[in-house]
């Protein structure tokens, strides 16, 4: 029995490795995706950090009413006001500029007279991409709050009152995130989705080729006329699909890790994913690859031709990505949720990426979720693998 | 030897095969002759265990296809009418692949593959990938993989269909060779001259039933005609089925 399964496995591997298109689909594309994610991940993290430190120039109206103290505080936040003539609202609404400030006439006088003054901050959160309006508004908000507090303290001091009156509660915030955890913030989101994409993409072509492809080539009848049983044929083919799916899982995550490690520190700011996360991705990813191989086989076995199978298998990618998205946005709250196929491994990987505390048995449960689903799926695939219907149904 | 006992397969109201029985002895060529849609291919597929019969069975080399399909397939070689091959594998690799299913390995496998390549005159394509092979070359691979385990029983579904003259001659010679080697050969065809030249006995199948069975001269005599083609028309026609002596004998049995 084993020799017949091994025979099919060996032949399918050889056959598909010789097919350049299949090899590209199975290995090269996931590898490119992995490297892209790897480069994108630390670069985005670094870009966010760098952006927060970059000088910011904000168009403003009424700068002459601002007063040197106000401008001096803005300067400490690396914010420079640039005089603007015309309709500032139109300019910002059009997205040409992400944020602008309107300083009313008499602003300095109102401050000097110990009155409340109002500044108008105009923003367009959609302008300037992800580093645009929201970033500018947040930095201006922080700077103006600081100025407001300085003025308040000065007013209290004039009245010989303690400045702490303004601070009944002080919040001492310390960011204890390690560089690895910082790197993991984006990885926690991207790795589960990357995993879902790879396990489907890697096995897609070969799963179709060994089932619908064999049928379309007219070789299935001869194969089924050999002493190999339906179970042996299906197991041999599944083993080949899983092998081809497993290769990109391993290569992609190693590529992910290598690429991010090869980037200069000026880009990554020391934020690198530890290899243990990559190892964890493989531990939960390989059983998931087995399950997805079974799913692809179930879909492909029921189709008659290569193109039919391609159409039928496309929703599998979406079906795999949805639980991975949920895991990326909604971390698992109890251990049993790790038993949900696809969601479990994705959630475990998401926690691993940020170095979070894994609930007991979470990794084991996420592996079991894939293995149990794979066994159940294989039983279903075997049921669909009816030789008479497979070969001759119209 | 292949014994076919009351094989029956219906698809809804269509009686594809309806109680077919006959025996193909070793060392003889048995032809399954019939018009298109008569049930030839369905009968062969049931013998190979590819289609499950509704009733009846086939005994191949002493193994019941219904109850012990894997054992029956071990002693059977099937050349299907589907001439699909693996385009990315060489002829030799395809034969080795099929040989391993029958437990062949190592030197025994290599020797057997080499023998089949020689027997079917495939030396020139032995180590070429099958991509772009002609129908005749593909047909040789299909036949080669049916022979790689050296089966005593061979079934062939329209083996000369679509081949050029030279390939047809080669195939017919090969079929004769199988008989000379003492194998049991059952093949389907709708070419009268082929059946008359090759077959030791012929089963004429019409509408899923055996209309007549016997050696070509006996069938010609039975129909009172001069040649097999006329005999076939007489026996295979609607009237022929009902007056068929063979069908009456089977019904009575």
Question: Overview of this structure, please?
Answer:
The complex is a heterodimer of chains A (about 400) and B (about 250). Chain A has about 400 residues and is mainly alpha-helical. Chain A has helices spanning about 1-15, 20-55, 70-75, 90-95, 105-110, 135-160, 180-215, 220-225, 230-260, 265-270, 275-300, 305-330, 345-355, 360-385, 385-390; strands at about 55-60, 80-85, 100, 120-125. Chain A folds into two domains: about 1-45 and about 180-390, no CATH class; about 55-165, D-Maltodextrin-Binding Protein, domain 2 (3-Layer(aba) Sandwich). Chain A has a four-stranded mixed beta sheet. In chain A, helix 1 (about 1-15) packs across helix 9 (about 230-260), helix 9 runs antiparallel to helix 11 and helix 11 runs antiparallel to helix 12 (about 305-330). Chain B is of the alpha/beta class. Helix content of chain B is about 40%, strand content about 25%. In chain B, strand 1 (about 1-10) and strand 2 (about 15-25) form a beta hairpin. The mean pLDDT of chain B is about 85. The chains are: A mainly alpha (about 400), B alpha/beta (about 250). The interface of A and B includes residues 218 and 228 of A.
Keywords:
heterodimer; A: mainly alpha; D-Maltodextrin-Binding Protein, domain 2; 2 domains; four-stranded mixed sheet; 15 helices; elongated; B: 253 residues; alpha/beta; six-stranded mixed sheet; four-stranded antiparallel sheet; 11 helices
Instruction: Specify the overall morphology of chain B.
Output: globular
Biggest interface: A-B, 24 and 32 residues
Number of DSSP E strands of chain B: 10
Number of domains of chain A: 2
* Residue share in helix of chain B: 40-55%
Q: Strand order of the main beta sheet of chain B, please? A: 6-7-8-3-9-10
Strand coverage percent of chain B: 15-25%
Low-confidence stretches of chain A: none
Amino-to-carboxy terminus distance of chain B: 21 Å
Main beta-sheet strand count, sense and barrel state of chain A: 4 strands, mixed
Strand order of the largest sheet of chain A: 2-1-3-4
Helix vs. strand class of chain A = mainly alpha
Number of helices of chain A: 15
Q: Mind summarizing the main beta sheet of chain B?
A: 6 strands, mixed
The helix content of chain A is 55-70%
The average pLDDT of chain B is: 87
């Amino acid at each position: 029995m084993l020799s017949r399964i091994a025979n099919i496995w060996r032949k399918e591997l050889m056959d598909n490795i010789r097919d350049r298109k299949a090899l590209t689909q199975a290995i090269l594309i996931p590898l490119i995706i992995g490297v892209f994610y790897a480069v994108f991940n630390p670069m985005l993290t670094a870009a966010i950090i760098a952006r927060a430190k970059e000088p910011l120039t904000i168009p403003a109206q009424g700068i002459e009413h601002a007063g040197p103290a106000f401008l001096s505080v803005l300067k400490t936040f690396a914010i420079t006001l640039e005089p603007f003539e015309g309709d500032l609202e139109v300019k910002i609404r059009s997205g040409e500029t992400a944020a602008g400030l309107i300083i009313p006439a008499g602003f300095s006088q109102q401050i000097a007279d110990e009155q409340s003054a109002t500044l108008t901050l105009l923003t367009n959160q959609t302008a300037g991409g992800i580093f645009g309006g929201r970033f500018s508004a947040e930095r201006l908000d922080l700077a103006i709050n600081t100025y407001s507090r300085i003025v308040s303290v000065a007013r209290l001091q004039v009245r010989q009152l303690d400045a702490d009156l303004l601070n009944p509660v002080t919040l001492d915030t310390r960011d204890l995130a390690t560089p690895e955890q910082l790197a993991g913030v984006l990885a926690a989101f991207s790795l589960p989705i990357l995993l879902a994409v790879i396990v489907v993409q890697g096995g897609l072509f070969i799963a179709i080729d060994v089932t619908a492809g064999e049928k379309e080539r007219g070789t299935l009848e001869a194969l089924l006329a050999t002493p190999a049983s339906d179970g042996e044929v299906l197991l041999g083919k599944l083993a080949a699909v899983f092998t081809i799916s497993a290769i990109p899982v391993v290569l992609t995550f190693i590529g992910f890790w290598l690429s991010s490690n090869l980037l200069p520190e000026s880009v990554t700011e020391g934020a690198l994913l530890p290899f243990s996360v990559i190892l964890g991705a493989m531990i939960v990813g390989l059983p998931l690859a087995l399950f997805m191989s079974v799913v692809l086989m179930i879909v492909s076995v029921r189709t008659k031709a290569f193109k039919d199978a391609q159409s039928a298998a496309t929703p599998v990618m979406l079906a795999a990505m949805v639980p991975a998205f949920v895991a990326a946005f909604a971390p698992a709250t109890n251990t049993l949720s790790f038993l949900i196929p696809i969601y479990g491994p994705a959630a475990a990987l998401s926690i691993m990426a940020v170095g979070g505390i894994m609930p007991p048995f979470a990794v084991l449960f996420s592996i079991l979720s894939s293995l149990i689903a794979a066994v159940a799926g294989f039983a279903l695939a075997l049921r669909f693998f009816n030789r008479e219907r497979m070969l001759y149904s119209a | 030897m292949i014994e076919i006992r009351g094989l029956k397969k219906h698809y809804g109201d269509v009686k594809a095969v309806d109680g077919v029985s006959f025996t193909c002895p070793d060392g003889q060529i048995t032809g399954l002759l019939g018009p298109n849609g008569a049930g030839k291919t369905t009968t062969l597929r049931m013998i190979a265990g590819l289609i499950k019969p509704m009733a009846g069975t086939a005994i191949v080399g002493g193994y019941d296809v219904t109850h012990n399909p894997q054992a029956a397939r071990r002693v059977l070689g099937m050349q299907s009418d589907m001439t699909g091959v693996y385009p990315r594998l060489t002829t030799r690799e395809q034969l080795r692949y099929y040989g391993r299913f029958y437990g062949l390995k190592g030197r025994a496998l290599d020797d057997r593959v080499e023998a089949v390549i020689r027997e079917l005159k495939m030396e020139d394509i032995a180590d070429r990938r099958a991509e772009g092979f002609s129908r005749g070359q593909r047909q040789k691979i299909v036949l080669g993989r049916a022979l790689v385990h050296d089966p005593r029983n061979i079934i062939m579904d329209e083996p000369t269909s679509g081949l050029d003259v030279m390939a047809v001659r080669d195939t017919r010679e090969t079929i004769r060779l199988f008989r000379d080697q003492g194998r049991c050969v059952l093949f389907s065809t709708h070419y009268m001259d082929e059946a008359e030249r090759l077959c030791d006995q012929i089963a004429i199948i019409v509408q899923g039933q055996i209309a007549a069975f016997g050696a070509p001269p006996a069938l010609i005599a039975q129909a009172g005609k001069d040649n097999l083609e006329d005999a076939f028309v007489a026996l295979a026609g609607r009237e022929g089925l009902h007056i068929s002596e063979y069908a009456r004998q089977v019904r009575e049995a």
